[in-house]
Amino acid sequence: MAPAAREPAEEALHEGQTTTRVRYPETDRMGIAHHTHYFTWFELGRTELMRQLGCTYGALEEESGIFFPVVQAAADFRASARYDEVVTVTTRLVRASGVRVCFTYVITREDGTVLATGRTEHASVDGRGRPQRLPGALQRRLTGQENDA
Amino acid sequence: MAPAAREPAEEALHEGQTTTRVRYPETDRMGIAHHTHYFTWFELGRTELMRQLGCTYGALEEESGIFFPVVQAAADFRASARYDEVVTVTTRLVRASGVRVCFTYVITREDGTVLATGRTEHASVDGRGRPQRLPGALQRRLTGQENDA
Amino acid sequence: MAPAAREPAEEALHEGQTTTRVRYPETDRMGIAHHTHYFTWFELGRTELMRQLGCTYGALEEESGIFFPVVQAAADFRASARYDEVVTVTTRLVRASGVRVCFTYVITREDGTVLATGRTEHASVDGRGRPQRLPGALQRRLTGQENDA
Amino acid sequence: MAPAAREPAEEALHEGQTTTRVRYPETDRMGIAHHTHYFTWFELGRTELMRQLGCTYGALEEESGIFFPVVQAAADFRASARYDEVVTVTTRLVRASGVRVCFTYVITREDGTVLATGRTEHASVDGRGRPQRLPGALQRRLTGQENDA
Fold first, then answer.
1. Quick one: C4-142 is in which CATH superfamily?
2. D2 touches chain C (CB under 8 A)
3. Residue of C34, C36, C47, C49 for testing the chain B interface, max B β-carbons within 10 Å
4. Mind listing the pLDDT tens digit for each residue in C27-77?
5. Residues of C in contact with A39 (CB under 8 A)
6. Which residue in C has a C-alpha nearest to residue B19's C-alpha?
């Protein structure tokens, strides 16, 4: 098996970081953050990266009518996060072309230990779920070619 | 990329089905079940399969001191689940040996449409998180070789 | 303080029961179901009661354009629910008139121990959030006066 | 009915504020934050207030063996929070004596609109769930009488 989360590193178009604390209801009876919440933290990561790039999801959905549903998600879990720990999500946008947008993630605790890595792939669709090519302006912004002649 | 969820089919040691309804708080503002909840449904699936095999997680953790934390999770999302829909989780145990247990999943709606497929890989550890080989009796039960001479 | 959840019993217009198992991610590091999930279980309870009455939320929202957002919720927690326990939600519809619908709840474990009681009050609104009187036919169905002359 | 959340204002022993953004999976198909998540935000509020007072939950649980399970929770919901909105939780500690700790909450959006108010009451218990009086030093710190002669 060659899981998505361990793919050879893809080149980042953009990278950003955000932090969050492990919430009490995110812990489980093993005393650690339940693995499902890492996918929520991935979402925090790409939300903040998109905001930094000037393309909030809210605006994309409400103004451009473009949605990015997750079509594939994968994660490797290497170490545990405990209650109230601050975790950092490093998010990289690695693809934004055609009808696909992809992000990779590394989640670390404060001492730098990698807790998890992950990858999500998103379709670009309209409000009815039909594939919709990324608008040119958006694609240029996401790929960093905004100022091309 | 060769994501875990699209791997060539692994042979099932055991298979089971369980159903659940999409809960209101599991929907998001796109009006569909948020993808993070599929990982919870996978967990429902393996919980019920293990119960059918006579090895509930509760008993494993409390009586045998064995835990199966998720070390890898992946899913492909193909179609959406809407509020109050009944979804069926078909879970297959595909590996139970050494310090690894693996399951695959197919989630369908009532008309048979595949909504998602997935795979989780679990470590076998003790209460302190140290790798712990599956006890022989448990491994035999999980691999269906319980009655070997 | 006279919390909602300990009010003198209101007369039930209708009553129903549903069961659910405590899911692993619903547990917290105290090893018990986190209190926030009881409000989700209340929602399961009223969803199933409404279904029994022939008025699913899905149909109300999609066909009648009526929504019942929660305007007040309260719960008393008396005992803990553990992982994988089956809990029963007994739901009573205690009011359905004007622009208000109210339910009360009792959550028990299998031996009959009461784990929690609760109450939710809902506004009847249209798709824009404006107060909307319950349609006569719906009110008659909810109050059991469906066959009035 | 005199719900907890509308009680006459209790005097605050301590007050603190924290903010959070509405996460995508916290929205529901009405497009707004599902009411159950407000109880998680209340928890964020009291977690941060306790941290400001130098008594983190983590330390209380792990070092002092004291837990504060919720025995009563109530909320009034007045307006909706939308995806990605910043909400502020103002938390007041209103009681810390004997075996009870109580907090009240006001959740506002950035323009000052009150979205919800709430109240939680907590028991002080030991690791086995038995009532445990607040240690004197903790009670003095929580009630602000730390420097009494």
1. Hotdog Thioesterase (3.10.129.10)
2. yes
3. C47
4. 998 889 999 999 999 999 999 999 999 989 888 888 888 999 999 999 999
5. none
6. C20
For the record, the structure tokens of A131 come out as 């594939």
Instruction: Sort out which chain C residues have CB atoms less than 8 A from A25's CB and list them.
Output: 28, 34, 36-37
Q: Which of D2, D70, D78 sits opposite C35 (nearest CB)?
A: D70
Evaluate the CA torsion angle C113, A83, C84, B36 in order and state its sign.
positive
Domain ranges of chain C: 4-142
Nearest-by-CA chain C residue for A36: C25
Q: Encoding tokens for residue A30?
A: 């093993």
**Which of A23-27, A56-60, C79-83 shows the lowest per-residue confidence on average (mean pLDDT)?**
A56-60
Please name the residue of chain D whose CA is at the shortest distance from the CA of residue A56: D84
* H/E run at residue C119: strand C114-123
Chains sharing 3 or more CB pairs under 8 A with chain B: A, C, D
DSSP string, C18-66: EEEEPPGGGB-TTSBB-THHHHHHHHHHHHHHHHHTT--HHHIIIII--
Both tokens of residue B4? Answer: 């875990």
For residue D10, give the chain C residue with the closest CA: C1
Write the residue in B31, B34, B83 that is nearest to D25 by C-beta: B34
Q: Convert the pLDDT of each residue in B97-135 to its tens digit.
A: 989 999 999 999 999 999 999 999 999 999 888 999 998
Q: Which pLDDT band holds residue A2 (cuts at 50, 70, 90)?
A: very low
Q: How far is CA D114 from the centre of its chain?
A: 16
Q: Are C101 and C66 in contact (CB under 8 A)?
A: no
Residues from chain B contacting residue D28 (CB–CB below 8 Å): 24-25, 27-29
Which of B83, B86, B77 lies closest to B31 in space, CA to CA?
A: B83
The one-character DSSP state at B39 is: H
Q: Is B60 on the interface with C (CB under 8 A)?
A: no
CATH topology of domain A11-143: Thiol Ester Dehydrase; Chain A (3.10.129)
Strand D114-123 and strand D100-109: the pairing is antiparallel
CATH superfamily of B10-141: Hotdog Thioesterase (3.10.129.10)
Three-state secondary structure readout of D94-132: EEEECCEEEEEEEEEECCCCEEEEEEEEEECECCCCCEC
pLDDT band at B19 (very low <50, low <70, confident <90, very high): very high
Q: How far apart are CA C2 and CA D4, in angstroms?
A: 7
Superfamily for D13-143? Hotdog Thioesterase (3.10.129.10)
- Residue D80: how many CB atoms within 10 A of its CB? 19
Model ipTM?
Answer: 0.90
- Residues D7 and D17: their CA atoms lie apart, in Å, by 21
Does the pLDDT of residue B149 top 70, yes or no?
no
Percentages helix, strand, coil for chain A (3-state, rounded to 5) are 25, 40, 35
Note whether A24 contacts C25, CB cutoff 8 Å.
no
